[in-house]
Design a protein that fits this description.
Layout lengths: L1 E6 L3 H11 L5 E5 L12 E2 L1 H9 L4 H4 L3 E4 L2 E4 L5 E4 L11 E4 L1 H15 L2 E4 L3 E5 L5 E5 L4 E10 L6 H5 L3 E2 L7 E8 L7 E6 L2 E8 L3 E8 L4 H7 L1 H12 L5 E2 L2 E2 L6 E3 L5 E2 L7 E3 L14 H20 L9 H24 L2 H13 L1 H11 L11 H8 L2
Parallel strand pairs: 1-2, 1-11, 2-8, 5-14, 11-21
Antiparallel strand pairs: 3-7, 4-7, 5-6, 9-10, 10-11, 12-20, 13-16, 13-19, 14-15, 15-16, 17-18
Helix pairs in contact: 1-4, 1-8, 2-8, 6-7, 8-9
The structure holds flavin-adenine dinucleotide.
The site of flavin-adenine dinucleotide has 38 residues, from helix 1, strand 2, strand 3, strand 13 and helix 8.
């Protein structure tokens, strides 16, 4: 029996495995994809993500090739208001937001996990997890093979089989929505990322390495029938033509560099993030929406918190339990979750969002604070301070 089986070899799973293996734990990662392939996932990350990566051993030589500095997030509303959220840094890789090359980044993380001693098994899909008894059992590949482990880490993203097996999956937050994402050639050389809202949806555009931009489109309920009838490529093309008139087109079509990857529903919620023999990291532990961009940051921080808790439990240190992880996650992200839900409440009401956007555009100090909160640079509680809310919302 192994110490830890990690289901999913994305950022959260690979980093959890790396951190545990480097502490001498016996770790196996089971990743269903045989090789890395572009999938529905995000690339834009706040400076806090880069700081978090540095703190677990990734330096300039690692990050330079996989991350492109982004100066600011430019928000452009359907009503024509524009403002820039900055993160208080100089714009260098040390202190700026970044756009990641996810293929290269995910492979770097897996390579580090392997180098630390983790056993990475690609092309192995986990179908079911049995958590009863003295240890957990994972059934893989539909052929009856099993892996047994003292602890299971669910790092298997939005449709987590580990969360489902633990019975903690809840209805996706914010209702039925879908997302599409792909890369285009970077013809603009814009150093800002952009967030452009339109009725019942938005487009995020982030510069990434390799002279490319990543486009992520989030669509609310009113788009879903059209998506079903016309397909993701046609809808992506229609939206790009509407909001990105300069985007690369070819013979009337979008010149997508990889493929239009989609996901629906977009969010994921769980009742708990840990039990006796299992815990959930990254998106598997809950994901609201890319608008406030904390997916990558949370994947990294949750991996750190999970690895520390699992190590304590496996070492049998007095009273340590995996459920400590739940407390650690709540204390780290509870307030930011409230802010993210507040932003979503505004986004869902175009008139209110436009009102707040105009005030953010006109009020520099308020805008600065908002950028620092969204970028995880100052405590999220700053955005819930009544003085901040009054400064934001007062006519
Ligand atoms: C459209 C979209 C846009 C986004 N934009 C942003 C953004 O701008 N900024 C940001 O920070 N975050 C964004 N995110 C979120 C970001 O992609 C995630 O937070 C990040 O990828 C989390 O990593 P993860 O390791 O938890 O999950 P994932 O990256 O999803 O990795 C999960 C892994 O588990 C594997 N897996 C799944 N099921 C099984 C199974 N049964 N057996 C074995 N393996 C399995 C998958 O193949 C995958 O490799 C976005 C997400 C989406 C969908």
């Amino acid at each position: 029996m192994i110490d830890v089986a990690v289901v999913g070899g994305g950022p959260a799973g690979a980093l959890t495995a790396m951190l545990l293996a480097s502490r001498g734990r016996d770790v196996v990662v089971l990743e269903r994809a045989p090789t890395w392939r572009w999938r529905a996932c995000g690339v834009f990350a706040s400076p806090a993500s880069v700081t978090a990566l540095r703190s677990i051993g990734f330096g300039d030589a690692d990050l330079g090739p996989v991350a492109r500095p982004v100066s600011a997030m430019r928000v452009e509303t359907a009503g024509g208001t524009t403002f820039r959220l900055t993160y208080g840094g100089s714009g260098s890789l040390d202190d700026s937001a970044v756009g990641f090359d996810r293929g290269a980044l995910d492979e770097l993380f897996l390579e580090r996990a392997r180098a630390a001693g983790a056993d990475i098994r690609m092309g192995v899909k986990v179908d079911r997890v049995d958590m009863g008894g003295d240890h957990a059992r994972l059934s893989t590949g539909g052929n009856g093979s099993e892996v047994t482990a003292r602890v299971i880490v669910g790092a298997d993203g939005l449709r987590s089989v580990v969360a489902r097996s633990a019975g903690v999956t809840r209805r996706a937050p914010l209702g039925p929505r879908a997302a599409l994402t792909f890369h285009l050639a970077d013809t603009e050389r814009d150093r800002d990322a952009r967030m452009i809202t339109f009725p019942d949806g938005y487009v995020g555009i982030a510069p990434v390495p390799g002279d490319r931009v990543n486009v992520g489109i989030v669509l609310g309920r009113s788009w879903l029938a059209r998506l079903r009838h016309e397909g993701g490529v046609a809808v992506a093309q229609a939206i790009c033509a509407r909001v990105l008139p300069g985007a690369p087109f070819e013979r009337g079509g979008l010149k997508v560099l990889d493929r239009v990857a989609g996901v629906t529903p977009l969010g994921h919620a769980v009742a708990r993030r840990a039990g006796n023999r299992w815990l959930l990291v990254g998106d598997a532990s809950g994901f609201l929406d890319p608008f406030t961009g904390e997916g990558m940051h949370r994947a990294i921080v949750s991996a750190e918190l999970a690895a520390a808790t699992i190590d304590e439990v496996l070492a049998g240190r007095g009273g340590s339990r995996l459920t400590e992880y739940e407390r650690a996650m709540r204390s780290r992200f509870g307030t930011k979750d409230v802010v993210s839900r507040l932003v979503q409440a505004f986004l869902a009401r175009p008139g209110l969002f436009e009102y707040a956007a105009r005030r953010l555009a006109a009020r520099e100090r308020v805008r600065e604070t908002m950028g620092l909160v969204i970028g995880d640079i100052v405590p999220a509680a700053r955005a819930l301070d009544p003085r901040f809310l009054a400064a934001l919302l007062a006519p």
